[in-house]
Amino acid sequence: MNGPPQYDDRARQVAESARAFAVALERSPADQAVALEDLEQAGRSWAVQAQSIQRFSSLVEPEEAVVPLEDRLAAVATDLGIAEVLLAAGIAADEVEVAVDGPTVLKSAVSRLEVDLASQRAEIGVTAGFARPSAELEPTGDPRDHFARASWDAVDGIVADTLTVLKDAWAHLHELAPDVAGKALSEVEAILDIAPQVGRLVRLGLQAAKRALLALFELLPERLKAAVRSEAREWWGKGVAQFENLAVERLIGAQRVRLALEDFNLTSVDPERLGTASALLHELVTRFGRLSQGLRRVLQALAAAVAVAGLLAVVVAAVGSWLPLAAAVGYLLTAGSIILLARDYLDTGGLLSRVDGLQQILSGLVTE
Amino acid sequence: MTVEAVNRRILRERALLEQARLRDLSSLLGEAMVAKRLGPGVTTALLQLVHQQDAAFSTLLGDDGEPTWTGLRERIRTGDRVLSECLAVVAGAFARPIPPIEAACAEAEALTTELYALTRIAADHSVIPADAECVSPASSVVRRRFPDHGIWDIPLIAHEFGHLVARDLLDVDPVSGDTSRPLAELLAGRKRQMAELASDVFAVYVLGPAYVLTLVLHRMDPTARAISYDDATHPGDASRVSAVLHALELLGASDIPIRRGQYDFLITELTKWWMEAQKTAPSEARLDDMAAARVHADAQKVWVRLASSRLAESQYLSFPRARTMADDLRNGRTASCAGASCRDVLNAAWLVRFRSWRDGIDTPDRFVAWARTQLIEIKECGTT
Lengths: 368, 384
Known about the structure:
The structure holds two protein chains of two kinds. By secondary structure, chain A is mainly alpha-helical. Chain A is built from 15 helices and no strands. In chain A, helix 6 packs across helix 11 (245-252), helix 6 (143-174) packs antiparallel against helix 12 and helix 10 (222-237) crosses helix 14 (317-346). The longest helix of chain A has 43 residues, at 271-313. Chain B folds into three domains: 3-95, no CATH class; 158-314, no CATH class; 319-383, no CATH class. The longest helix of chain B is centred in the first third of the chain and has 28 residues, at 3-30. The radius of gyration of chain B is 24 Å and the shape is globular. The A-B interface holds A 2, 5-6, 8-9, 13, 16, 19-20, 23-24, 28, 30-31, 33-35, 38, 121-126, 128, 130 and B 173, 175-181, 185-186, 188, 289-290, 292-294, 296-297, 300-301, 304-305.
């Protein structure tokens, strides 16, 4: 996450306060009360900040948007990580009586959040130029060969990244009851609403989860919501067969791009332009890799939050009925989003136009 | 001339005279002998400050509008603070060569030099005398109270240094280049008292028991309010005592397993002594359980930030060496200071004194003389 320092710091304060609360559980009641108060305050402070950054999320914003999509996805993942921590803290604080070792559940959740926050910081470096040198190096050999390789690699990379996200989403969805996905797709808006009468930490945790799902939902502009649902429904309906490369290629139109690449006549293109185009392709596939990584992180964080919320679902009826549908919505939205993004990056969809995709780079070579 | 016009003229001329004071100050700082005494780092910092104020007066007097009495009052107030700070630094720097002051400042500088080596903060870590220990963010010059309680008060310098650390500690992610200010971010928007508490925790973090002993036994008043009023600059005395004892507990807990309880004897004894001293104190001088838990939680937050920052390796972990030195001194042997730090020396001296009190005997003056000599020798050898 590359948010403003205060944004990072508030997430960090939740992690630190939750860690302090876990330690305080072994100390005096006064220590526990103060640590609990601190954690609630940190949770509320985070909520204010998270709302302000997630409010402006949309997949249709251009690549150079003030808050890049990667950062928004990271914010969603962080919100889910914080949801998990707050729910676990609520369990550890006995807000809901659940037959588990609350402090252990809390410590695991905090560790995950700490690792996630640290890894988000470290990954920004990769996006900020760490991985670029290979693209910026002067290619050796024939620039036509180099460009041909780069374009095939770009298609392969986008297909592979899409497949990975879809597999992850499928694995999580598969753990839910068979009819949940279909139901979730038809009741998306309704199931984002939950406000059970529970303790303050659990309530803050559920709010964070709801906010994250809403942010994921809001990534899709109104005009695309129906399309994504339809994509997700079709994808879900195909079952396990969709995990063959070929099926994903068809789904995102990669096959068409491969045919276009085969037909493309490189001999008439100025070699200098090919160098620039190769660099653009590399940038394109790197960016897609980061987005797919962001979506995978969302999936992981959602699964972890769902696991902890699942402990509550046994005793809080409202959570029990809400959780599977909410989780399904999250997984399906993620799957739908990667499909749309892949089509945009390959220029095979037409629904998004965030980037100049692979085919536009090709046509640029012809028309310039 | 109309009354309004005269009034405007009076206002303008007063503003110009105030600006002239700042320009005189700027000239003073530019004098070769002053600049030489202050050193280039401090001189530049102070000159920048003065120029900022000068520019603010120019804005006030500019063409954009007429100055107002309220605007002038605000400018004079800020300008006076800058003048006061600059003159205090100049006076301190010129007083420094007087032999007893020089000796006291050099001893304190032995510690600031070591803290700079540990933290790489406050590159110009010279110390000047003042009527109270303090540090101004404007000049970053640490002041030692003069006269004070001799070597027993030197640990307080670590607290003042802590203010600079709180402001300047910058963490840079080695992979991403992402930066954060772990302490400044933690303290942002909080009461000034939290900054003082953070400096207390920093002092325990880098110096260990010596700071706790100085603060609790030399400076804290067991009859003072335990919780300060909101507008107070410092937390209440009992709050600070509780915070530093908790920080000492954290320091012990972060050492290797065999040494984790090494400060328990100090914590137990100091707690006992403090409680005894509070027996006749008014009830508002005592900290209740909830208030103590709040102080501990705040101290812990600062500790976590320090321990997860680039200062993770700067904790004071060589107390066994100080203990050996203290044992040697008590047994009349020559304490070996090879490889020792100023922090070891201060801890060894305090340990001898603490044990003497506990055992009901006087602390011989030779310990003080020994510690003062060691501090200077370590500073001159550059050993940390």
